[in-house]
Amino acid sequence: MPITNQQVAGHEFLRPMYDDTYFPDHVVDRGKAILLRLCERIEGGQPSDLETLYGLTQAATEEFNLLDREFVAAGSGIETVAREWICDDFCFVVSAYGFTDAEAEVLTAGRDW
Fold it and tell me: Taking residues 1-5, what's their average pLDDT?
C-alpha cells in the first residue's frame, strides 16, 4: 500500500542513522521499513483514538526490539542516540497523522533499547 500522506511520503526516515557509519545501512533499511509499515497501518486502519494508535506503535516497537538483535550481530546496536532518533521518527509519524496529543514515552513504551 503506497503512503498517501505527502508529509510522510517526503520524509527521510532514520536519516541520522544512515549518516553514521556505526549503523549498517542494510539494518537501518529494515528500521525504515518498520516505520513505513506503521504509516501503512495508520492509513489503512485510521485509528480514531490514542489507545488504538498506541497499539499500532507498540507493534512497531516490538519489531524494533527484534531488530536490535540484528544491529548487535552487525557490531552495532540501538543505543542512546539511536533511540532518540527512532523515537523522533515515531513522534513525527503520529504528528503527521494528526495525533498531536500522543505522549512520546507511550509510543515506544515496550522498547528494550
Answer: 90
DSSP-derived letter for residue 13 is: T
> Grid coordinates in use for 97?
497523522
In this prediction, residue 1 carries a pLDDT of 75
Q: Is residue 48 classed exposed, middle or buried when 0-12, 13-18 and 19+ CB atoms within 10 A define those classes?
A: exposed
Number of residues that make up the chain: 113
Cell 552487525 locates to: 74
User: What b/e string do you get for 67-99 counting C-beta neighbours within 10 Å, with b at 16 or more?
Assistant: bbeebeeeebbbeeebbebbbebbbebbebbeb
Place of cell 521518527: 89
**Does the global pTM surpass 0.90?**
yes
